[in-house]
C-alpha cells in the first residue's frame, strides 16, 4: 500500500516538475510590441512590513485595472506579477532573475525594504532591466554608486527626516532636550544619524537625554516610557512605523507621555487610522511625502479624490502612503512609456530606450509633480504638520502644514547626505516656507 | 552503493541540464548546492544524534568573510578557503565548549551562539551596515573577471564541484572509524569511552568539519546573491537548514542535496504560484514528508530500490 502511494507521489512529483519546467522555458522575450506589459512588483506580502506591502498591492491592483480599462499603455494591457520580499535577500534576488528571465517582465518595481533595494539595484545594472524603486528610503542607493537602470519615484530618508526637523525648529524653536526611540535596525539607526547631523548644526546645544533602540517588533515599551517620563525631554523623536509605532504610541498615551513632551513622528501616517482617537493632538506628524488625505491644495484635487474614494470603496479603508508611492510608480511608468514611444515615433521602446525615458522624467501625481534627477532620485515634496482632529476623519490629520519643496530638503546630486547635512548653517532656517493655507 | 554514485552522477547531470535549459534556475540551483553543502554538516551531527539549531552562524561567517574581504582581495581562489578557515576556526573555538553538551542543550547552545552573532551583525551598525547588509564587491576568478553570464556559470560550477567533493569526503568520513564512532555517540557514549575512543574529540572533529562546510556554503551564497544581510544568521535560517536535512533524509550524503534542491524548487514555484501563501505550501510539504516519508527524499528513493 505504502509502495503504491510512494510511486504515485513520485510520478505526480515528476510530472509536476517536468510541467513547470516546460512552462518555465516558454517565457520567451517578445520583440516589438508585446501582447501584454508585465510588471514585476516586489512587496511584503507576509511579516510585519506587510502593513505597508498589502495596501500597496491593493492599490496596484486597483490602478492596473483602471489603466487597463483606459486601454493600457500604448494599447498594451498591463499585468502585475507580485513577489513576496519577506523570505530574504537570497530568495528575492532569485525572484528578480525569475521575473526577468522567465516571466519576461518589461520592468520591475522593487521593494519596500532598503536591504532588498540595495540587493536588487546592482542586479538591475547587470541585467539591464529598468527598476523603479517604489518605496524604499535608504540614501545609500544613489549616493554610493551609479545605477543607469534604477529610478526612485518618491522621496527618501534625508528629506523625510530633514523636513520634520525643520518643522520642529520653526514650530518649537526653544526646545532644549530631546530623546529618540527608534526601531533597532538600519532605518532606525540611519534616520537618527541624519537627524542628529542636521540638528547639531541647525540648533547646536540640544541635549540628547535618551537614545533608545528597542528591538524591532517589540510589544512592550513600559521601560522606555518610564525612562522618557523620568527624563522629561522637550521633544521625543521616533521614526518607528507599523505595529511597533502603534504599540509605542498606545502605551505612551496610557501613561500621559503626550502631555509632557512633543512627539515628532516622521513615518506615522499609516498608523493614524489604526490609532484613531488614541493619537493626541498637537504633535508633529509626517507621511514620507505630500500625499495627506486632507492636502489643502493638491495639484489635481479631482484625481486625488477619485483615487481615495475608489480605494475606500474597494477595500473599506483609507489609502496610506505606500498606496500613494505605488500610484507614483505607476504614473511614472505611464509617463516614461509615453515619452519613449513618442521618441521612437510610435515604436515600442527596448530596455535602454525605456531607461533613457525615465531619466529626467517629470510626471504628475494627484498632489504635485515629481521630477527624477539625473542620478535617478525622484524629487518628492514633503508636507509636515501638527496632529489635529476634525469632523471629516475619524483619525488624526495634520493642520498648519508646511510644504517643503523637494529640492530644498534633498541632498544635492553627488554629495553624501550626512556630509551635506553637516554643512548646513542656521541661515538655512530662513528658507522654510510659510504654512500653506487650509 | 553503486546506485548511490549513479544517482549522484545523474543528479549532477540533471542540475547542469536544468541550469542550461532554464537560465534563471541556475541561480536557484547554485543556492541549493551551497545550502546542500552546509546541510552536509548538519547530517554529520545528526549521525551523532545531535541537532544544531544554530548552524546558520557558520553560513553567516562564511558569507560575511566574503563580503568583508572582497574589497581588499577579490580572488575567489583565496577568498573561498579564507571563509572556510574562519568558519572552521570559529567552530573549533566554540566547539571545544559545545561538545560537552548533548541533545537539547547542544541544540539550544548552538542557537544561542547563532543569535549572538546575528545580534552583533545587526547592532554593530557602523561596521556591518546592520539589516541593510553589505554588497559583495566584484570578484575575480583565477585572475580573470568574466562577464555576468560566464561568472554565473563559474559560480555554479564551483558549487557543483565543491558539492561533489564534500559529498565524497563525507561519505568516506562516515565510513571511516571516526565516522562510525559518531553513530556510537548516538547509541551509547560510555561504550565508546570503554573502547578507548574519546567521544568528545570525535564529536569535535565532526563539529569543526561541519563548521567548515557551513562556511563554504555561506561563501557560495554570498558569491551568488552578491549581497549579505544578517538574516542569514537568524534562527529561521538555521531552521531552514534542519528542514532541508529532514526533507532530504539523513541516510546518505546525497540527502542534503536532494533536500536542498527540493526545498528551493518548492519555495520558488510556490512563491510564483501563490505569492501570498507560499509558506503554507512549504509547511504542507514538510508535514507530508514527516508523516509519509520519515526517511526524506533519499528514503523514498532507496526504499524503491529495495522493494
UniProtKB/TrEMBL annotation, chain B:
Its main location: membrane. Keywords: Cell membrane, Membrane, Transmembrane, Transmembrane helix. It is found in: Cell membrane. InterPro entries: ABC_transp_permease (IPR001851), LivM-like (IPR043428). The chain crosses the membrane at residues 37-64, 76-98, 153-174, 202-222, 234-258, 278-301. The keyword Lipid biosynthesis does not apply. Coiled coil: none annotated. It holds the Pfam family BPD_transp_2. This is Branched-chain amino acid ABC transporter permease.
Amino acid at each position: 500500500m505504502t509502495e503504491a502511494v510512494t510511486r504515485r507521489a513520485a510520478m505526480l512529483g515528476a510530472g509536476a516538475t517536468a510541467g513547470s519546467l516546460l512552462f518555465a522555458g516558454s517565457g520567451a522575450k517578445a520583440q516589438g510590441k508585446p501582447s501584454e506589459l508585465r510588471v514585476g512588483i516586489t512587496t511584503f506580502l507576509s511579516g510585519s512590513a506587510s502593513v505597508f506591502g498589502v495596501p500597496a498591492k491593493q492599490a496596484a491592483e486597483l490602478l492596473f485595472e483602471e489603466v487597463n480599462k483606459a486601454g493600457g499603455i500604448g494599447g498594451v494591457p498591463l499585468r502585475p506579477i507580485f513577489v513576496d520580499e519577506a523570505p530574504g535577500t537570497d530568495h528575492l534576488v532569485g525572484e528578480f532573475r525569475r521575473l526577468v528571465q522567465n516571466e519576461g517582465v518589461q520592468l520591475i518595481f522593487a521593494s519596500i525594504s532598503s536591504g532588498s533595494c540595495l540587493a536588487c539595484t546592482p542586479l538591475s545594472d547587470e541585467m539591464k532591466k529598468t527598476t523603479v524603486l517604489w518605496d524604499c528610503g535608504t540614501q545609500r542607493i544613489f549616493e554610493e554608486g551609479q545605477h543607469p537602470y534604477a529610478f526612485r519615484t518618491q522621496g527618501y530618508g534625508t528629506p523625510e527626516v530633514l523636513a520634520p526637523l525643520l518643522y520642529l525648529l520653526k514650530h518649537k524653536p526653544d526646545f532644549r532636550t530631546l530623546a529618540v526611540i527608534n526601531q533597532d535596525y538600519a532605518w532606525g539607526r540611519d534616520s537618527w544619524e541624519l537627524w542628529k547631523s542636521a540638528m547639531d548644526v541647525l540648533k547646536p546645544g540640544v541635549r540628547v537625554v535618551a537614545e533608545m533602540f528597542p528591538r524591532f517588533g517589540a510589544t512592550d515599551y513600559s521601560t522606555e516610557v518610564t525612562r522618557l517620563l523620568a527624563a522629561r525631554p522637550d521633544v521625543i523623536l521616533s521614526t518607528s512605523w507599523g505595529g511597533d509605532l502603534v504599540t509605542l504610541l498606545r502605551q505612551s498615551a496610557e501613561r500621559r507621555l503626550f502631555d509632557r513632551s512633543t512627539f515628532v513622528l516622521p513615518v506615522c501616517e499609516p498608523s493614524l487610522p489604526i490609532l484613531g482617537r488614541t493619537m493626541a493632538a498637537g504633535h508633529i506628524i509626517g507621511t514620507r511625502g505630500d500625499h495627506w488625505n486632507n492636502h489643502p491644495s493638491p495639484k489635481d484635487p479631482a484625481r486625488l479624490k477619485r483615487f481615495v474614494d475608489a480605494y475606500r470603496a474597494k477595500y473599506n479603508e483609507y489609502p496610506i502612503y505606500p498606496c500613494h508611492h505605488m500610484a507614483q510608480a505607476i504614473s511614472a511608468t505611464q509617463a516614461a512609456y509615453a515619452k519613449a514611444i513618442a521618441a521612437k515615433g510610435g515604436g515600442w521602446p527596448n530596455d535602454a530606450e525605456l531607461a533613457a525615458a525615465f531619466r529626467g522624467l517629470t510626471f504628475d501625481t494627484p498632489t504635485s509633480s515629481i521630477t527624477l534627477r539625473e542620478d535617478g532620485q525622484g524629487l518628492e515634496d514633503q508636507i509636515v504638520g501638527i496632529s489635529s482632529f476634525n469632523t471629516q476623519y475619524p483619525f488624526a490629520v495634520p493642520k498648519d502644514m508646511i510644504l517643503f519643496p523637494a529640492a530644498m530638503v534633498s541632498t544635492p546630486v553627488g554629495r553624501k547626505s550626512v556630509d551635506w547635512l553637516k554643512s548646513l548653517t542656521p541661515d538655512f532656517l530662513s528658507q522654510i516656507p510659510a504654512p500653506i493655507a487650509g | 552503493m553503486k546506485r548511490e554514485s549513479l544517482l549522484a552522477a545523474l543528479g549532477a547531470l540533471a542540475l547542469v541540464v536544468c541550469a542550461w535549459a532554464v537560465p534563471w534556475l541556475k541561480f536557484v540551483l547554485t543556492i541549493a548546492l551551497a545550502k546542500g553543502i552546509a546541510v552536509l554538516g548538519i547530517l554529520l551531527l545528526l549521525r551523532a544524534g545531535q541537532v544544531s539549531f544554530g548552524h546558520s552562524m557558520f553560513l553567516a561567517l562564511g558569507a560575511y568573510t566574503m563580503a568583508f574581504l572582497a574589497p581588499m582581495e577579490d580572488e575567489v581562489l583565496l577568498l573561498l578557503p579564507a571563509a572556510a578557515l574562519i568558519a572552521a576556526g570559529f567552530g573549533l573555538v566554540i566547539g571545544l565548549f559545545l561538545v560537552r553538551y548533548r541533545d537539547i542543550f547542544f541544540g539550544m547552545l548552538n542557537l544561542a551562539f547563532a543569535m549572538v552573532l546575528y545580534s552583533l551583525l545587526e547592532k554593530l551598525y557602523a561596521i556591518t551596515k546592520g539589516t541593510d547588509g553589505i554588497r559583495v564587491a566584484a570578484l575575480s576568478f583565477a585572475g580573470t573577471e568574466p562577464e555576468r553570464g560566464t561568472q554565473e556559470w563559474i559560480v555554479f560550477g564551483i558549487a557543483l564541484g565543491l558539492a561533489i567533493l564534500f559529498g565524497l569526503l563525507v561519505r568516506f568520513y562516515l565510513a571511516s572509524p571516526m565516522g562510525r564512532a559518531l553513530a556510537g555517540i548516538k547509541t551509547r557514549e560510555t561504550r565508546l569511552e570503554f573502547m578507548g575512543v574519546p567521544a568528545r574529540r570525535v564529536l569535535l572533529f565532526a563539529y569543526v568539519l561541519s563548521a567548515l562546510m557551513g562556511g563554504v556554503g555561506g561563501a557560495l551564497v554570498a558569491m551568488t546573491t552578491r549581497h549579505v544581510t544578517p538574516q542569514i544568521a537568524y534562527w529561521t535560517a538555521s531552521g531552514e537548514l534542519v528542514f532541508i536535512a529532514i526533507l532530504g533524509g539523513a541516510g546518505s550524503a546525497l540527502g542534503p542535496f536532494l533536500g536542498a534542491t527540493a526545498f528551493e524548487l518548492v519555495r520558488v514555484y510556490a512563491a510564483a504560484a501563490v505569492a501570498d501563501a507560499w509558506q503554507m505550501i512549504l509547511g504542507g510539504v514538510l508535514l507530508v514528508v514527516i508523516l509519509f516519508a520519515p526517511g526524506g527524499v533519499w528514503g523514498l528513493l532507496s526504499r524503491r530500490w529495495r522493494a
